[in-house]
Amino acid sequence: MIIGTETEQIEFKLTTGERKEAMESICAILNKHCCGTLYFGVDDEGFVKGQQITDSTKKDISRIISESIDPKIVPSIEVLSMESKEIIKVSFSGHNRPYSVNGKYLSRVGTENRRMTNDELKRLIKNEDYSSHWEEELTSFGLDDVDETSLLDFFKSAKDCGRLEMDKFEKERLLVSLGLLTGNKLNNAGFALFGKSAKIGLKLSTYPSSNKVAITDLKLVNGNIYNLINITIDYILNRINWRVEIGSRKRIEIPEIPERALREIIVNAFAHANYETLSEIEIGIHPNSIEIYNPGSFPDELTPFDFINKNLPSYKRNKLILDVLFRSKDVEKSGTGFQRVNYLCNSQGVSWTYKKEAYGFSFEFIRSNVQLNVQLKEDLTIQEQIIFNLINDNSKISKRELALRIGKSEKTVQRIISSLINKAVIVRVGSNKTGYWKVTDKQEGNK
Predict the structure, then answer these.
(1) 217-223 and 242-246 beta bridge pairing
(2) pLDDT of res. 182
(3) Which pLDDT tens digit goes with each residue over 194-213?
(4) pLDDT tens digits along 341-353
(5) How far apart, in whole angstroms, are the C-alpha atoms of residue 256 and residue 138?
(6) Which member of 46, 295, 306, 353 lies 3.0 to 4.6 Å from 2 by CB, making a disulfide possible if both were Cys?
(7) Cα separation of 150 and 146, whole Å?
(8) CA distance 61 to 77
């Protein structure tokens, strides 16, 4: 008899003699999925072979799990009878990640248990610490601490777009319905969104070049999320270029970057940020890009292109905050945000890129009026200028990373690099694997 196949959440062991391997599987599954099932008495192909079971077998399994897995979990252990053969089913769950087994931290990849890297472990610790019901934790603030102007503005927006069914504005009822108020106390999500004295951090900066050595404008702002989103959008729109188109009836002003795309990325930065660490949302306006930094890590195994091409569901870091912003039509929960941004940018000829970091995620809109720190004698296309900037900033950057940064294929990157080499703008020093890029002497002399 076959009971199924092994998956990322299901593991088979032939006998309890494989206890060590079984504990590693439990640990790996917990770190990846928070719950799973392990069977003793089943071979790797899913065939029921049976397991000799005594009165102490269940106690022994419970003991070894207690001694091996940290933090401790309380599994459910059952004896099942199938075709006159007995097997043991161990069901387990836990949300206090990361879990270790005898001091090792493992993660599930397919049906294998792989040791976690230090970076993976750091990100898991950071994400789990934050996502363990931080939003629902109650504060000492109540109704009098709510910025009623912001809340009323939200109410009107949510009503206008049909995502809130409430006849009239009632502060307490509205907050309760949104899951932001319990027993006259705001939770962390409610205070972060609408608190009068909320201290969410926002750093707004303008730079004269592509690096951050010099700065021409700096604003450090604290406030609630709802107000900060508007402050951020206004700051950027007042510092980018606009063009004017004269229609048959009226004058139309169009920003160099689609306003809807800007709003989508800005709102998502606030929706998915890690607020428990008191980190800041950061906006950097450069001559060649607009960078939006979100102190909340991106899913390790995914990129924005996965959400664009695979219709993946949204990665919900702050579910309550995301729900409120969704209701006011500031963000979508379906995971289509990157699709919309990509469509809007493509329709206006705007390129974009991103960077996944250990403690955050940066999204960059590439500006068409690129200005380089190096004055080039050769005429370069916009894509060549962008690649040149990236190489100039990081001489060891790989073609793969360049492709990811500009959202193009490696084949396209190679074509651009070949053009830059032919124009004597850059040269390759050393091998493809261990070498680096070098700006030519004549370019260095023009810095």
Answers:
(1) unpaired
(2) 93
(3) 999 999 999 999 988 888 87
(4) 999 999 899 999 9
(5) 43
(6) 46
(7) 8
(8) 8
Amino acid found at 88: I
Rounded to two decimals, the pTM is 0.57
Domains of the chain by start residue, with CATH: 10-116 (3.30.950.30), 135-371 (3.30.565.60), 382-444 (1.10.10.10)
Residue 287 makes CB contacts below 8 A (sequence gap 6+) with 207, 208, 209, 210, 367, 369, 370, 371
CB–CB of 305/341 below 8 Å? no
Confidence of residue 315 (pLDDT cuts 50, 70, 90): low
For residue 96 the two structure tokens come to 């206090």
- Which of 290, 289, 295, 291 lies closest to 271 in space, CA to CA? 295
